[in-house]
Every structure is written in C-alpha cells, then in structure tokens.
C-alpha cells in the first residue's frame, strides 16, 4: 500500500464514507480510520462491507442502498467528515441511453449526496467544524461521449459542492471535490466491455485508446492516491481550501 504522506488526526471525529465496500471508498474508509476517525461505511454490498470491517476495528458497516434517500439523510446525522463517493457507470450513446438508468444514476450520485449533506450539516454547524469531500471525477470538469448521466451527475456534484462551501464557510465547514481520471477499481473494469461496444473497438484497446487517451500520464491511478488527497482536504492545513476541485487526472484538464 502507498505510505501515508499527510499527517492527520481525526481522533474523536466520525466520518461517513459512501460506496465504502470497494475501490476508492474502501481506500478512503481505511485512510480515515487510520487517522483515528470512527468510520461509518455505507454501501449496498454487505459482503464488501464485512470484509472492510474485518480490515480495521474502527469501521462500522452501514448496509444501505442510497436510492433510499430518507435513510441516507438519517445515516449522515452526527458525521463530522462526509465523503460522498458511491457511484456506478453506464456507457451508452444518448439515443440508446435507458431513461431508468439515467434516473437511477442521478439519484445515487447527485440526489443522495444532497441528502447526505443535508443530514450532516446540523451536527457540523453545531460543532463549528466539518469536512465534506465529494468524489467527483475528471468528468465533473470535462465531458466524454456516451456518459451522459455520469457527466451530468458529476457536473451537478461540482455545483452542489460549491454551494455547500459557501453556506458552510461561516460554520467552519469546508466542501471540496476530488476529480480523478481513471482509477484502478472494479468500476473501471466493469465498463471495458461497454466502452468497447460503444466505441467499436476490441476490449484490449479500451485502456490505451479510450481511458488513457486524454491523460498525459499513461497509467491508471491507484485508489490510495485518491484517499491521500481526501485526507489532505480533511487536515487543518487545508481549512482555507473550500469550493475547490482537485484534479488527480494525469494532466487531462491541462488540454
Ligand atoms: P467501485 O465500483 O469500486 O465502488 C463503488 C461502490 O459504490 C461499490 O461498493 C458499490 O456497491 C457502491 N454503490 C453503488 N451504488 C450504490 C447504492 N445505490 N447504494 C449504496 N452503495 C452503492 O467504484 P470506484 O471506482 O471506487 O468509484 C467510486 C467513486 O469514484 C464513484 O463516484 C466514481 O464515479 C468515482 N470515480 C471513479 C473513477 C475510476 O476511474 N474508478 C474515476 C473518477 C471518479
């Protein structure tokens, strides 16, 4: 595992991480637990949550499907750190994009973060301190073909994060996005077949010809690299950073 480079003490704090059973969320949950936080790990994947809880005693599994928006809002009450991370991908041309999938994606990746922030803010405001980190994407800053719902959700999340920053600032609450390009996780592995079909290329060319095409850095990013950026945004030294978006995109947005 990548060694930690950020000094972070979250002793006495509660962190809630969504999508914690896998990939970036799992790395964030373990990173925040290592910093001393009590971590509420939210996911719909019970087996993944149990495996995570077995990896660190400070992790409490919270099995929850985020399409239950009322339950999501309730789960966020009392959180000092909120990492909005859960997500999935659907790759289809616009004219073939299933409306149900568009709705489901926006529910989990935009409306649930709104409800989680809504649920977390009263406690953060009462304590005069809070950290909201939204796992956006390079697709919060740039579009790609065949990803209409995802690009809409991430651009919306960028806006939501900025509003939370403006409202939270007088209360000691920061809100930021991290914006990775392709990270080595199951979400990426699962979309290779769909990307190949949408682009009309063989699966073995998807990583090089599609995923890394716009990145100056020709490698996938590791989940622990994203988790370390999240840790930095939770540190006291980052208290002036709010309403920002931190690209971890290998130079994609330098174009
Ligand atoms: P992943 O598939 O490894 O993990 C996503 C997790 O979200 C899973 O454990 C899944 O069960 C959970 N989840 C999905 N829908 C849910 C729901 N309705 N209720 C509860 N949990 C739900 O994916 P990942 O790559 O770690 O992605 C995490 C976040 O990072 C996503 O928001 C994604 O858009 C973003 N992101 C990923 C990449 C990448 O290349 N992997 C790049 C940029 C941004």
Which key terms come to mind for this protein?
255 residues, alpha/beta, Rossmann fold, 7-stranded parallel sheet, 9 helices, binds nicotinamide-adenine-dinucleotide
Short description:
The chain has 255 residues and is α/β, with parallel strands linked by helices. Helix content is 43%, strand content 15%. It has a single domain, classed as NAD(P)-binding Rossmann-like Domain (Rossmann fold).
Q: Which class in CATH terms?
A: Alpha Beta
Overall tally of domains: 1
Estimated structural class: alpha/beta
**Total of DSSP H or I helical runs spanning 4+ residues:** 9
- Note the gap between the termini: 31 Å
Rg to the nearest angstrom? Answer: 17 Å
Order of helices and strands: EHEHEHEHEHEHHHHE
Task: Report the CATH topology name.
Answer: Rossmann fold
Helical residues, percent: 40-55%
What small ligands are held by the chains? nicotinamide-adenine-dinucleotide
For the biggest β-sheet, the strand order reads 3-2-1-4-5-6-7
Shape category? globular
Largest sheet descriptor: 7 strands, parallel
Average pLDDT metric: 97
* CATH H-tier superfamily: NAD(P)-binding Rossmann-like Domain
Strand content: 5-15%
How many runs of DSSP E, i.e. beta strands?
A: 7
- What is the architecture at the second tier of CATH? 3-Layer(aba) Sandwich
Low-confidence stretches: none
């Amino acid at each position: 595992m990548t060694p930690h480079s950020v000094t972070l003490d979250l002793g006495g704090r509660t962190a809630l991480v969504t999508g914690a059973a896998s990939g970036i969320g799992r790395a964030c949950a373990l990173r925040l637990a290592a910093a001393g936080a009590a971590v509420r790990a939210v996911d719909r994947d019970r087996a993944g949550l149990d495996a995570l809880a077995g990896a660190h005693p400070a992790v409490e599994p919270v099995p929850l499907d985020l399409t239950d928006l009322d339950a999501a809002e309730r789960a966020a009450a009392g959180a000092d750190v909120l990492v909005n991370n859960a997500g999935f991908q659907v790759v289809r041309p616009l004219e073939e994009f299933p409306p149900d999938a568009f709705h489901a994606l926006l529910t989990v990746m935009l409306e649930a973060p709104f409800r989680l922030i809504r649920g977390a803010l009263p406690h953060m405001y009462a304590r005069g301190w809070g950290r909201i980190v939204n796992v956006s994407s390079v697709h919060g800053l740039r579009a790609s073909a065949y990803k209409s719902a995802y690009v809409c959700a991430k651009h919306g999340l960028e806006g939501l994060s900025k509003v939370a920053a403006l409202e939270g600032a007088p209360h000691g609450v920061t809100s930021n996005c991290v914006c990775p390009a392709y990270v080595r996780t199951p979400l990426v592995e699962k979309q290779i077949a769909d990307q190949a079909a949408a682009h009309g290329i063989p699966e073995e060319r998807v990583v090089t010809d599609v995923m890394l095409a716009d990145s100056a850095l020709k490698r996938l990013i590791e989940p622990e690299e994203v988790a370390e950026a999240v840790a930095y945004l939770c540190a006291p030294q980052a208290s002036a950073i709010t309403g920002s978006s931190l690209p971890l995109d290998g130079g994609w947005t330098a174009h």
